[in-house]
Amino acid sequence: MNVLVVSCNHHKAGVQLRERLAFPNAEKLHQAYQQWRETHPDSELVVLSTCNRVEIYAADEQGNEGVSFDDITRFISKFHNVPTDEFVNSVLAQSGVAAVSHLFQVACSIDSMVLGEPQIVNQVKEAYRVAQEHDACGPLTNVLFQHALKVSAQVRTETGLADGRVSIASVAVGDFGKSIFSRFDNKTVLVIGAGEMAEETLTYLQSEGVQRIVVANRHRERAELLASKFHGEAVDFATLDDWLAKADVIVSTTGASETLISRERFAAARARSNRHPVFILDLGAPRDFAPAAGSVDDNVFLYDIDALEETCNRNREAREAEVQKAMLIIASQTQTFMHEIYHRATGPVIHRLREHWHDISRGELDRLYRKLPTLDDPQRQAIEATIQRIVNKLLHPPLEALKDEARAGVPEGLIHAIRRLFFFGEK
Amino acid sequence: MGDTVGFLAKIHIYCFLLSYLVSLGCEILQAFRKHSVATRVVLIGVTTAGLLAHTAFLLTRSTASGLPPLLTSQQDWLLVLAWIGSLLYLVLMVLHRQMAHGLFLLPAIVLLIVIALFVSPHSTGHLDQLALRRLGMFHAASLVLGIAAVVGAGISGVMYLMHHQRLRNRSGWLQRLALPSLEVLTGVNRWMVVFSVPCLTIGLVTGFILIFWSRAPDAANFISWSDPTIVTTVLVWVSMIIVLIRVLLNPHQTGKAVAQLSILSGGFLLTTVLGPMILSGSGNLSTFHSGSSEQSSLDRDDTLAVPNVGQREGSQ
């Protein structure tokens, strides 16, 4: 029984690397699950790909003989056509308790750039749903992800981690947007993409007084849906360049796998404008704007996700006490989860042993009743109770030994010994 | 009453200069360390004390000379400019407690006061008639406001450029400074430029009227067209007109470009207006405004100048 995670996240890797390893859309994820299934048909897999992290969770019930870190890194390398040595030092590889604790921290947004941000729970849920859709989940990942979502809910309820500025949008607009503009009610906001992040950003911008919202998306219906929620206007994706010239605030969150706005394209759009200040928030992974677009003129302020790091660190320092509370919950829940997992591993053996011994006692009692047919019911009940007590007393030492061992991990050696001792030849 | 007047008369420039230096130290401390209530209390207390001492100093000088501060001496011009700055700083500090306005305003205030120490404290050349003195007051007030606006434009320009640098390059130490938004700084910068031009223009026009008047055959004092203060003020006025034209006529002018122009104008002001003031204060340059020109040579001694003015005022 084994749980592994290979994580390329904002702590260890820059956005340049993360975008090379990202699975930005449904199509890429579908291909990834297919390729994994071809090479590792017996293992479980969940891929979590957001703007801040690319994480691959793998699990199997074969312990050390199953899937390994090398398998995962080779898979990433082959899928993205990126040599292993270009990313292996920038990824985090964890197994067992550490991997479980890591997922819980991720789901609780302790590991997020913006502490307490709510989007990550939905992203974890979505990653789990997509893995289920591709039949990539199994007994271990099912219980692991369900438990992670429960822990996340507990942390949100019992700590103040989610209080205050807790979204990437609120931090970006609060720190950078308000440093550029003193008011937003007279600004035109262009949103490129119509995903959850776009919605989150618009919610915050609208609370800051934004009145004119324009949504451009490749799929017009989704743009219209999002625009209608915020009393905005959905525009044709073909007119994007016109809006790039007009907008004061641009939020880009598409799932495009290539750069959408090159420097040249943006420079051409700016040439048609009066070079007013423009605040661009590129939350795409890979990034939608070429980094060089930020230097088109002095009034262009382009920020990608990594630009928020320093503000987020200050935010984290201010809420250190809540982090400690959340970490205690996570530690306790990780321990509970691991016990459950270990007991799940010993469960079939215990069940089999009980069944086996009770079958033997039932068989011997039947033989005794045939030899002594004159026994009345109270006598039979007394004999059955005695036999039951004997079986239970004999079962007690091996079962206690299994439980004790299971507190520290899966008692592979003991399970093997019990099988050899009592089930003769069963593996 | 007499004790109070005596106490106020003892206030020296160094008293409020020291207060502002302490305030500047507190501002630097706040910028690089966490904001604390104690530092803020000290900051407000010291600045208020400095401003009160500053006000008392100007009032005492004005009372002693029998003239408004702006007509007393060039030194008082600078001190009035610094007083406007410190009043503005105190208001901003109370209204926007998180902003680092002091890091930009206080050095300018301190600089003006330090320059004032090197500028002639002697009475400005006398204007004999009441109407002329009123016009002289209007002339001086317009120029001081215009110069204040140029200095303000320069300061907001520096703030804009630092904020711009912070936002574009995310420089580490600049991240700690809380500054107004670029939109606010651009607005302040542009309005300061726009405001400075009419003030300087009015100051210049009234100055020319004073020159014509002083050249009348019966005038006691004669002001030369080539007076260094007049020449340099004209140069500042021309530079501000150029900046204004660029601001108003070029719709694609970025905030950064306007800020750079404002800083240039501010620098120009420092060298052309304050330079001659310092030179005349040290006796290397003769100018009517420093009270060191030949026409006002009788007033070089403070002990002579102040009673003379008072007597003339009283005889009107």
The shape of chain A is elongated
Mean pLDDT of chain B: 76
The rounded distance between the terminal residues' Cα atoms of chain A is: 16 Å
Percent of residues in helices of chain B:
over 70%
- Outline type of chain B: flat
Secondary-structure element pattern of chain B, one letter each: HHHHHHHHHHH
Q: Helix and strand string of chain A, N-terminal first?
A: EHHEEHEHHHHEHEHEHEHEEHHHH
- Rg of Cα set of chain A: 29 Å
Q: Which class of secondary structure composition applies to the elements of chain B?
A: mainly alpha
Helix content of chain A: 40-55%
Biggest sheet overview of chain A: 6 strands, parallel
Q: What integer value in Å does the Rg of chain B equal?
A: 21 Å
Contiguous helical run count of chain B: 11
Beta-sheet strand percentage of chain B? under 5%
Describe the structure.
The complex is a heterodimer of chains A (427) and B (316). With 427 residues, chain A is of the alpha/beta class. Chain A contains 15 helices and ten strands. Chain A has helices at residues 15-21, 26-39, 69-80, 96-107, 119-133, 139-158, 168-180, 196-207, 220-229, 240-246, 263-271, 309-318, 320-371, 377-406, 412-422; strands at 2-9, 44-49, 53-60, 92-95, 188-192, 212-216, 233-235, 249-252, 278-282, 300-304. In chain A, helix 9 links the parallel strand 6 and strand 7. Chain B is 75% helix and 0% strand. The interface between A and B is medium-sized, with 17 and 19 residues.
The gist of it:
The complex is a heterodimer of chains A (427) and B (316). Helices cover 55% and strands 12% of the residues of chain A. Chain A is built from 15 helices and 10 strands.
Question: What's the helix and strand layout?
Answer:
The complex is a heterodimer of chains A (427) and B (316).
Chain A: E1 2-9, H1 15-21, H2 26-39, E2 44-49, E3 53-60, H3 69-80, E4 92-95, H4 96-107, H5 119-133, H6 139-158, H7 168-180, E5 188-192, H8 196-207, E6 212-216, H9 220-229, E7 233-235, H10 240-246, E8 249-252, H11 263-271, E9 278-282, E10 300-304, H12 309-318, H13 320-371, H14 377-406, H15 412-422
Parallel strand pairs in A: 5-6, 5-8, 6-7, 8-9, 9-10
Antiparallel strand pairs in A: 1-3, 1-4, 2-3
Helix pairs in contact in A: 4-6, 4-13, 5-6, 6-13, 7-8, 10-11, 13-14
Chain B: H1 2-9, H2 13-32, H3 37-65, H4 69-72, H5 74-95, H6 102-118, H7 130-169, H8 182-214, H9 228-249, H10 255-281, H11 302-315
